[in-house]
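Hey, quick one: can you model this chain's 3D structure?
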Amino acid sequence: MKPLVIVPVVVAVVLTLFAWPQAKSGPRDVPLGVAGAPAMERQLSAQGGKFELHRYTDEAAARRAIEDRDVYAAFVGTPGGMKLLTASAASPAIFQMLTHAASESGKPVEIEDVVPTTHAGGALASSVMPMVIAGSLTGMLALFMAAGAWRRIGLLLGAATGAGLVAATIIQSWLGVVEGDWVTNAGVFGLAVLAIAATVCGLGSLFGKFGAIAGAITMVFVGNPFSAVAAGPEMLPSPAGVIGQLMPPGAAGNLLRSTGFFDGAGASGHLAVLVAWAVAGLACVAVAALPRVRAHVGARLQHVPAAA
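Sure thing. Here's the predicted structure for all 308 residues.
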């Protein structure tokens, strides 16, 4: 009877993790700028917490805020009427939402895409899952094919570097999904793979194959659907958007937006998340090789089947 219970539970959990963020997608404290547009400011403030407004003195200040990734867009009052400054490279979903609202307002609104995405920029979100798969696979290979901490760490670093170079070649050089400095983008891809791989290998080194599987499952079934690469974290229900940005898939996707379209603006937080996961994973690999730790964990794991 256990499979009859386990299978529906697994289906329910997986469907919830993947479908819930999309089904409940909508603006929640989306950062927007306003400059010289008091009527629009009042209208946006009355939207029940959908938007977080930032006031700017003029159009130039609002434009800089968009380029620095402080806000997704800005409504600017001009002598000729209302102007909407947007950045499709920051979030295609928010860009479409705002431009559609402007076109349906019944009033003439000039729309300018300050930081446009490439013709294939919509494929950026599709690069997250391959990074998760590559990282999980690399972590598993390092765990089961390399003996000793240093060999595992060397395999992780080498494989992540190779994956980053290949990914940048495909995503930027061939498909033209992102722009920016090629070497920097390759480093982002490589760091993303390393963060995931080191986590999987580190958990596996400490807790055996069950730890590695748990790490990979978490990245696939939590990190990937919560990444919000296509929509933006403010479009996901709470706390999915926050959780997603604290995990490698979400941090990598947004970091790639920063390096690929915004000259690195807003990259520091996402970079710190990836570095933290990578360092923690590599530290787990090293710590697990210590004789005392290995002996203690091995003794504890021997009791798991008996307790089960």
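One thing worth noting: The chain has a mean pLDDT of 92.
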